[in-house]
Design a protein that fits this description.
Elements lengths: L6 H12 L16 E4 L2 E5 L12 H14 L7 H4 L3 H14 L3 E5 L2 H12 L5 E5 L4 H10 L2 E5 L4 H13 L5 E6 L11 H11 L2 E5 L13 H4 L8 E5 L9 E5 L1 H10 L1 H4 L6 H16 L2 H20 L10 E7 L1 H15 L1 E2 L1 E3 L9 E6 L6 H17 L4
Parallel strand pairs: 2-11, 4-5, 4-6, 6-7, 7-8
Antiparallel strand pairs: 1-2, 3-9, 8-9, 10-13, 12-13
The structure holds pyridoxal-5'-phosphate.
Protein backbone atom coordinates (compact mmCIF):
# COMPACT_ATOMS: atom_id res chain seq x y z
CA UNK A 1 0.00 0.00 0.00
CA UNK A 2 1.21 3.47 -0.84
CA UNK A 3 1.92 5.36 2.36
CA UNK A 4 0.31 8.73 3.18
CA UNK A 5 3.33 11.02 3.75
CA UNK A 6 1.37 13.54 5.82
CA UNK A 7 -0.90 11.27 7.86
CA UNK A 8 1.24 12.04 10.91
CA UNK A 9 -0.07 15.63 10.98
CA UNK A 10 -3.60 14.63 11.99
CA UNK A 11 -2.37 11.76 14.17
CA UNK A 12 -0.14 14.03 16.21
CA UNK A 13 -2.81 16.72 16.56
CA UNK A 14 -5.32 14.10 17.73
CA UNK A 15 -2.81 12.86 20.30
CA UNK A 16 -2.38 16.42 21.65
CA UNK A 17 -6.15 16.90 21.84
CA UNK A 18 -6.64 13.57 23.61
CA UNK A 19 -4.20 14.69 26.33
CA UNK A 20 -5.59 18.25 26.67
CA UNK A 21 -2.28 19.58 25.39
CA UNK A 22 -3.51 21.33 22.25
CA UNK A 23 -3.73 25.07 21.64
CA UNK A 24 -6.54 27.07 20.05
CA UNK A 25 -6.14 30.70 19.11
CA UNK A 26 -8.62 33.36 20.17
CA UNK A 27 -8.88 36.49 18.02
CA UNK A 28 -8.78 40.09 19.26
CA UNK A 29 -10.85 42.76 17.56
CA UNK A 30 -9.31 45.48 19.71
CA UNK A 31 -5.87 46.20 21.21
CA UNK A 32 -4.03 43.84 23.52
CA UNK A 33 -5.05 45.64 26.74
CA UNK A 34 -7.20 44.88 29.79
CA UNK A 35 -10.52 45.99 28.27
CA UNK A 36 -10.59 44.35 24.88
CA UNK A 37 -12.85 42.44 22.48
CA UNK A 38 -11.90 38.83 22.02
CA UNK A 39 -13.84 36.34 19.91
CA UNK A 40 -16.53 39.00 19.55
CA UNK A 41 -17.09 39.65 23.22
CA UNK A 42 -15.95 42.25 25.68
CA UNK A 43 -13.51 40.73 28.13
CA UNK A 44 -11.05 41.61 30.82
CA UNK A 45 -7.68 40.48 29.50
CA UNK A 46 -5.34 39.20 32.17
CA UNK A 47 -2.80 37.67 29.87
CA UNK A 48 -1.18 40.34 27.75
CA UNK A 49 2.58 40.93 27.96
CA UNK A 50 1.86 44.61 27.29
CA UNK A 51 2.40 45.12 31.05
CA UNK A 52 2.59 48.90 31.00
CA UNK A 53 -0.25 49.37 28.54
CA UNK A 54 2.06 51.32 26.25
CA UNK A 55 0.94 49.58 23.03
CA UNK A 56 -1.87 52.14 22.90
CA UNK A 57 -0.16 55.11 24.56
CA UNK A 58 -1.06 58.21 22.48
CA UNK A 59 2.58 59.29 22.08
CA UNK A 60 3.58 55.82 20.90
CA UNK A 61 0.67 55.60 18.45
CA UNK A 62 1.40 59.09 17.10
CA UNK A 63 5.09 58.31 16.58
CA UNK A 64 4.10 55.19 14.63
CA UNK A 65 1.71 57.14 12.40
CA UNK A 66 4.23 59.90 11.73
CA UNK A 67 6.93 57.40 10.79
CA UNK A 68 4.72 55.33 8.56
CA UNK A 69 3.81 58.46 6.61
CA UNK A 70 7.46 59.32 6.12
CA UNK A 71 9.02 55.88 5.63
CA UNK A 72 6.17 53.68 4.40
CA UNK A 73 5.41 50.16 5.55
CA UNK A 74 8.43 47.90 5.23
CA UNK A 75 12.20 48.03 5.83
CA UNK A 76 13.08 46.61 2.43
CA UNK A 77 16.05 44.45 3.37
CA UNK A 78 18.38 43.18 6.05
CA UNK A 79 20.45 46.09 7.45
CA UNK A 80 23.87 44.86 6.32
CA UNK A 81 22.71 44.54 2.71
CA UNK A 82 20.75 47.73 2.04
CA UNK A 83 21.26 49.89 5.11
CA UNK A 84 19.42 50.54 8.31
CA UNK A 85 17.46 53.70 9.18
CA UNK A 86 18.34 56.89 11.03
CA UNK A 87 15.53 55.93 13.43
CA UNK A 88 17.22 52.62 14.21
CA UNK A 89 20.51 54.38 14.98
CA UNK A 90 18.62 56.81 17.24
CA UNK A 91 16.84 53.96 19.02
CA UNK A 92 20.01 51.95 19.59
CA UNK A 93 21.83 54.94 21.08
CA UNK A 94 18.86 55.87 23.23
CA UNK A 95 18.31 52.31 24.41
CA UNK A 96 21.99 51.87 25.34
CA UNK A 97 21.80 55.02 27.48
CA UNK A 98 18.55 53.83 29.05
CA UNK A 99 20.12 50.47 29.92
CA UNK A 100 23.36 52.16 31.07
CA UNK A 101 25.58 50.15 28.72
CA UNK A 102 27.95 51.09 25.90
CA UNK A 103 25.83 49.97 22.98
CA UNK A 104 22.73 48.12 21.85
CA UNK A 105 21.37 46.44 18.75
CA UNK A 106 17.76 46.17 17.64
CA UNK A 107 17.15 42.64 16.40
CA UNK A 108 14.09 40.95 14.95
CA UNK A 109 12.70 39.37 18.14
CA UNK A 110 13.80 38.15 21.54
CA UNK A 111 13.60 34.62 20.17
CA UNK A 112 15.87 35.56 17.26
CA UNK A 113 18.42 37.11 19.63
CA UNK A 114 18.83 33.79 21.39
CA UNK A 115 18.88 31.55 18.35
CA UNK A 116 21.17 33.94 16.45
CA UNK A 117 23.65 35.03 19.09
CA UNK A 118 24.13 32.04 21.41
CA UNK A 119 25.54 29.81 18.62
CA UNK A 120 28.15 32.49 17.91
CA UNK A 121 29.15 33.04 21.54
CA UNK A 122 29.80 29.33 22.08
CA UNK A 123 30.57 26.32 19.92
CA UNK A 124 31.73 22.73 20.04
CA UNK A 125 34.72 23.40 22.33
CA UNK A 126 32.60 25.25 24.90
CA UNK A 127 30.17 24.62 27.74
CA UNK A 128 26.87 26.32 28.48
CA UNK A 129 25.58 26.16 32.03
CA UNK A 130 21.85 26.78 31.81
CA UNK A 131 18.99 27.14 34.31
CA UNK A 132 16.63 24.17 33.99
CA UNK A 133 13.61 26.41 33.38
CA UNK A 134 15.13 28.66 30.73
CA UNK A 135 12.93 29.76 27.84
CA UNK A 136 12.64 27.54 24.77
CA UNK A 137 14.49 30.06 22.61
CA UNK A 138 17.54 29.69 24.86
CA UNK A 139 17.26 25.92 24.63
CA UNK A 140 17.10 26.13 20.84
CA UNK A 141 20.00 28.60 20.69
CA UNK A 142 22.14 26.31 22.81
CA UNK A 143 21.23 23.30 20.65
CA UNK A 144 22.24 25.19 17.52
CA UNK A 145 25.58 26.09 19.10
CA UNK A 146 26.58 22.40 19.52
CA UNK A 147 28.25 23.39 22.81
CA UNK A 148 27.97 20.94 25.68
CA UNK A 149 24.96 21.87 27.82
CA UNK A 150 24.99 21.44 31.58
CA UNK A 151 21.73 22.14 33.39
CA UNK A 152 21.63 23.56 36.91
CA UNK A 153 18.64 23.31 39.21
CA UNK A 154 16.24 26.20 38.85
CA UNK A 155 17.72 29.39 40.42
CA UNK A 156 19.90 27.17 42.64
CA UNK A 157 23.23 28.93 43.09
CA UNK A 158 25.02 26.12 44.90
CA UNK A 159 24.08 23.69 42.13
CA UNK A 160 25.30 26.26 39.60
CA UNK A 161 28.62 26.36 41.42
CA UNK A 162 28.88 22.55 41.38
CA UNK A 163 28.13 22.45 37.68
CA UNK A 164 30.72 25.14 37.01
CA UNK A 165 33.32 23.05 38.85
CA UNK A 166 32.44 20.14 36.54
CA UNK A 167 32.64 22.43 33.52
CA UNK A 168 36.04 23.69 34.57
CA UNK A 169 37.38 20.13 34.86
CA UNK A 170 36.46 19.54 31.21
CA UNK A 171 38.81 22.32 30.09
CA UNK A 172 36.31 24.13 27.91
CA UNK A 173 37.51 27.04 25.79
CA UNK A 174 34.63 29.24 27.03
CA UNK A 175 31.97 28.84 29.69
CA UNK A 176 28.64 30.62 29.31
CA UNK A 177 26.15 30.91 32.16
CA UNK A 178 22.72 31.64 30.75
CA UNK A 179 19.47 32.42 32.51
CA UNK A 180 16.11 34.08 32.05
CA UNK A 181 15.97 37.29 34.12
CA UNK A 182 12.28 36.80 34.94
CA UNK A 183 10.99 33.30 34.28
CA UNK A 184 8.01 33.63 32.03
CA UNK A 185 5.91 30.77 33.37
CA UNK A 186 6.55 31.29 37.09
CA UNK A 187 7.26 34.99 37.43
CA UNK A 188 10.28 34.39 39.66
CA UNK A 189 13.65 36.06 39.21
CA UNK A 190 17.17 34.81 38.58
CA UNK A 191 19.49 35.32 41.59
CA UNK A 192 21.62 37.59 39.46
CA UNK A 193 24.00 39.08 42.08
CA UNK A 194 25.06 35.58 43.13
CA UNK A 195 25.32 34.40 39.53
CA UNK A 196 27.58 37.35 38.65
CA UNK A 197 29.76 36.71 41.70
CA UNK A 198 30.23 33.04 40.83
CA UNK A 199 30.84 33.83 37.16
CA UNK A 200 33.76 36.04 38.18
CA UNK A 201 35.35 33.17 40.12
CA UNK A 202 35.16 30.86 37.11
CA UNK A 203 35.87 33.38 34.34
CA UNK A 204 32.50 32.59 32.78
CA UNK A 205 30.39 34.80 30.51
CA UNK A 206 26.96 35.77 31.81
CA UNK A 207 23.97 36.08 29.44
CA UNK A 208 20.66 37.25 30.91
CA UNK A 209 17.53 37.02 28.81
CA UNK A 210 15.42 39.77 30.37
CA UNK A 211 12.43 39.70 28.03
CA UNK A 212 9.95 39.76 30.94
CA UNK A 213 12.02 42.00 33.21
CA UNK A 214 12.29 44.95 30.86
CA UNK A 215 9.59 47.54 31.42
CA UNK A 216 8.88 45.90 34.78
CA UNK A 217 11.99 45.78 37.00
CA UNK A 218 14.54 48.50 37.74
CA UNK A 219 12.11 51.32 36.85
CA UNK A 220 11.66 49.67 33.48
CA UNK A 221 15.37 49.13 32.81
CA UNK A 222 15.25 45.46 33.71
CA UNK A 223 16.80 43.03 36.17
CA UNK A 224 20.40 44.24 35.75
CA UNK A 225 19.43 47.75 36.84
CA UNK A 226 17.17 46.31 39.56
CA UNK A 227 20.24 44.72 41.15
CA UNK A 228 22.63 47.57 40.24
CA UNK A 229 24.77 45.22 38.19
CA UNK A 230 25.33 47.49 35.19
CA UNK A 231 28.63 46.61 33.50
CA UNK A 232 28.85 43.21 35.20
CA UNK A 233 26.57 41.18 32.92
CA UNK A 234 28.23 40.48 29.58
CA UNK A 235 25.10 40.01 27.46
CA UNK A 236 21.60 41.34 28.07
CA UNK A 237 19.02 39.98 25.68
CA UNK A 238 15.61 41.62 25.69
CA UNK A 239 12.36 42.22 23.92
CA UNK A 240 10.53 45.37 22.87
CA UNK A 241 7.40 43.23 22.50
CA UNK A 242 6.42 42.71 26.12
CA UNK A 243 6.66 45.38 28.83
CA UNK A 244 7.47 47.98 26.18
CA UNK A 245 4.38 47.05 24.19
CA UNK A 246 5.86 47.29 20.68
CA UNK A 247 7.89 44.65 18.84
CA UNK A 248 11.47 43.49 18.51
CA UNK A 249 14.46 41.95 20.24
CA UNK A 250 17.42 43.75 21.76
CA UNK A 251 21.00 43.02 22.70
CA UNK A 252 22.67 45.39 25.16
CA UNK A 253 26.25 45.40 26.40
CA UNK A 254 29.75 46.44 25.38
CA UNK A 255 30.62 47.96 21.99
CA UNK A 256 32.58 44.77 21.24
CA UNK A 257 29.52 42.64 21.93
CA UNK A 258 27.31 44.69 19.63
CA UNK A 259 29.83 44.73 16.77
CA UNK A 260 30.29 40.98 17.21
CA UNK A 261 26.52 40.39 17.16
CA UNK A 262 26.00 42.62 14.11
CA UNK A 263 28.68 40.70 12.22
CA UNK A 264 27.92 37.17 13.33
CA UNK A 265 24.37 36.60 14.56
CA UNK A 266 22.70 34.74 11.71
CA UNK A 267 19.17 35.85 12.59
CA UNK A 268 20.35 39.47 12.46
CA UNK A 269 22.29 39.01 9.24
CA UNK A 270 19.75 36.97 7.33
CA UNK A 271 16.34 38.36 8.25
CA UNK A 272 14.66 41.65 7.28
CA UNK A 273 14.82 44.54 9.75
CA UNK A 274 11.88 46.14 11.53
CA UNK A 275 9.59 48.50 9.68
CA UNK A 276 10.78 52.04 10.54
CA UNK A 277 7.37 52.82 12.09
CA UNK A 278 7.97 50.07 14.64
CA UNK A 279 11.36 51.56 15.45
CA UNK A 280 9.73 54.98 15.91
CA UNK A 281 7.32 53.38 18.37
CA UNK A 282 10.27 51.80 20.21
CA UNK A 283 11.92 55.23 20.59
CA UNK A 284 8.66 56.75 21.81
CA UNK A 285 8.10 54.01 24.36
CA UNK A 286 11.51 54.48 25.96
CA UNK A 287 10.82 58.22 26.23
CA UNK A 288 7.49 57.46 27.93
CA UNK A 289 9.04 55.04 30.42
CA UNK A 290 11.68 57.64 31.29
CA UNK A 291 9.27 60.54 31.69
CA UNK A 292 6.15 58.84 33.11
CA UNK A 293 7.15 56.59 36.01
CA UNK A 294 3.50 56.15 37.04
CA UNK A 295 2.99 53.23 34.63
CA UNK A 296 5.58 51.03 36.33
CA UNK A 297 4.35 52.14 39.74
CA UNK A 298 0.72 51.20 38.97
CA UNK A 299 1.80 47.84 37.58
CA UNK A 300 3.49 47.02 40.89
CA UNK A 301 0.61 48.32 43.03
CA UNK A 302 -1.75 46.00 41.15
CA UNK A 303 0.70 43.11 41.37
CA UNK A 304 1.04 43.37 45.12
CA UNK A 305 -2.72 43.69 45.69
CA UNK A 306 -3.78 40.89 43.34
CA UNK A 307 -1.16 38.42 44.54
CA UNK A 308 -2.05 38.92 48.18
CA UNK A 309 -5.75 38.40 47.43
CA UNK A 310 -5.38 35.20 45.36
CA UNK A 311 -3.00 33.77 47.92
CA UNK A 312 -5.47 34.44 50.71
CA UNK A 313 -8.14 32.54 48.72
CA UNK A 314 -5.82 29.53 48.80
CA UNK A 315 -4.33 29.64 45.30
CA UNK A 316 -0.78 28.40 44.86
CA UNK A 317 1.15 31.18 43.11
CA UNK A 318 4.50 29.37 43.26
CA UNK A 319 7.47 31.68 43.73
CA UNK A 320 6.11 34.60 41.74
CA UNK A 321 8.04 37.83 42.44
CA UNK A 322 6.75 39.87 39.51
CA UNK A 323 3.51 40.77 37.62
CA UNK A 324 3.47 37.22 36.20
CA UNK A 325 1.24 35.37 38.66
CA UNK A 326 0.69 31.66 38.02
CA UNK A 327 -2.36 30.01 39.58
CA UNK A 328 -1.03 26.47 39.77
CA UNK A 329 -3.79 23.85 39.70
CA UNK A 330 -1.84 20.67 38.81
CA UNK A 331 -3.96 18.77 36.32
CA UNK A 332 -3.82 20.04 32.69
CA UNK A 333 -7.54 19.35 32.13
CA UNK A 334 -8.43 21.41 35.18
CA UNK A 335 -6.22 24.30 34.09
CA UNK A 336 -7.92 24.33 30.71
CA UNK A 337 -11.35 24.11 32.35
CA UNK A 338 -10.57 26.99 34.70
CA UNK A 339 -9.51 29.19 31.77
CA UNK A 340 -12.51 28.09 29.68
CA UNK A 341 -15.11 28.86 32.36
CA UNK A 342 -13.46 32.18 33.20
CA UNK A 343 -13.65 33.15 29.55
CA UNK A 344 -17.08 31.78 28.65
CA UNK A 345 -19.01 32.54 31.84
CA UNK A 346 -17.08 35.39 33.46
CA UNK A 347 -15.64 37.22 30.42
CA UNK A 348 -12.13 36.98 31.79
CA UNK A 349 -9.34 36.03 29.42
CA UNK A 350 -6.48 34.07 31.00
CA UNK A 351 -4.13 31.50 29.53
CA UNK A 352 -3.95 27.83 30.49
CA UNK A 353 -0.31 26.78 30.56
CA UNK A 354 0.29 23.08 30.20
CA UNK A 355 3.01 20.68 29.08
CA UNK A 356 5.46 21.20 27.33
CA UNK A 357 5.58 24.78 28.66
CA UNK A 358 5.53 23.51 32.23
CA UNK A 359 5.71 20.07 33.81
CA UNK A 360 2.39 18.22 33.44
CA UNK A 361 1.71 18.19 37.21
CA UNK A 362 2.31 21.95 37.45
CA UNK A 363 -0.37 22.96 34.92
CA UNK A 364 -1.79 26.37 35.64
CA UNK A 365 -3.42 29.46 34.37
CA UNK A 366 -1.06 32.37 34.08
CA UNK A 367 -2.34 35.78 35.09
CA UNK A 368 -0.42 38.93 34.25
CA UNK A 369 -0.95 42.31 35.81
CA UNK A 370 -1.26 45.47 33.76
CA UNK A 371 -0.85 49.16 34.49
CA UNK A 372 -4.13 49.96 32.70
CA UNK A 373 -6.22 47.84 35.08
CA UNK A 374 -8.26 49.60 37.76
CA UNK A 375 -8.90 48.42 41.30
CA UNK A 376 -12.50 47.71 40.22
CA UNK A 377 -11.27 45.51 37.38
CA UNK A 378 -9.08 43.61 39.81
CA UNK A 379 -11.95 43.06 42.24
CA UNK A 380 -14.21 41.78 39.46
CA UNK A 381 -11.47 39.40 38.32
CA UNK A 382 -10.74 38.26 41.86
CA UNK A 383 -14.34 37.37 42.66
CA UNK A 384 -14.67 35.41 39.39
CA UNK A 385 -11.41 33.57 40.01
CA UNK A 386 -12.58 32.69 43.51
CA UNK A 387 -16.03 31.53 42.33
CA UNK A 388 -14.70 29.30 39.53
CA UNK A 389 -11.81 28.02 41.65
CA UNK A 390 -14.33 26.83 44.28
CA UNK A 391 -16.61 25.31 41.65
CA UNK A 392 -13.71 23.24 40.31
CA UNK A 393 -12.49 22.42 43.86
CA UNK A 394 -9.13 24.04 43.17
CA UNK A 395 -9.36 26.14 46.33
C1 LIG B 1 12.51 34.56 28.41
C2 LIG B 1 12.03 34.82 27.03
N1 LIG B 1 12.93 34.92 26.05
C3 LIG B 1 12.55 35.18 24.78
C4 LIG B 1 11.22 35.31 24.45
C5 LIG B 1 10.85 35.63 23.03
O1 LIG B 1 10.72 37.01 22.90
P1 LIG B 1 10.01 37.64 21.61
O2 LIG B 1 8.55 37.51 21.83
O3 LIG B 1 10.52 39.03 21.53
O4 LIG B 1 10.47 36.79 20.46
C6 LIG B 1 10.26 35.21 25.43
C7 LIG B 1 8.84 35.33 25.07
O5 LIG B 1 7.97 34.65 25.51
C8 LIG B 1 10.67 34.95 26.75
O6 LIG B 1 9.78 34.85 27.73
Amino acid sequence: MKRDPVAFLREEINELKKNNLDWTIRYLEDSSKPHSIVDQKEVLMLNTNNYLGLATHPKVVQATIDAIKKYGAGAGAVPVIAGSFDLTKEFQEKFAKFKEVEASLLCQTGFAVNTGLIPQLVGKQDIVVSDELNHGSIIDGVRLSRAKRIIYKHTNVSDLENQLKEAEKEGARRILIITDGVFSMDGDMAPLPEIVKISEEFGAMVFVDDCHGEGVLGEGRGIVAHYNLQGKVHVEGGSMSKGFGVFGGTVAGSKDLIEFCLNKSRTYLLSTAHPPSVVAACIAVIKVVESEPEHVQRLWDHTNYFKKEVQSMGYNTGNSQTPIIPLIVGDPGKAQELARILFEEENIFTTPIVYPMVARELSRIRVQMNALLTRDDLNIALSAIEKVGRKLSII
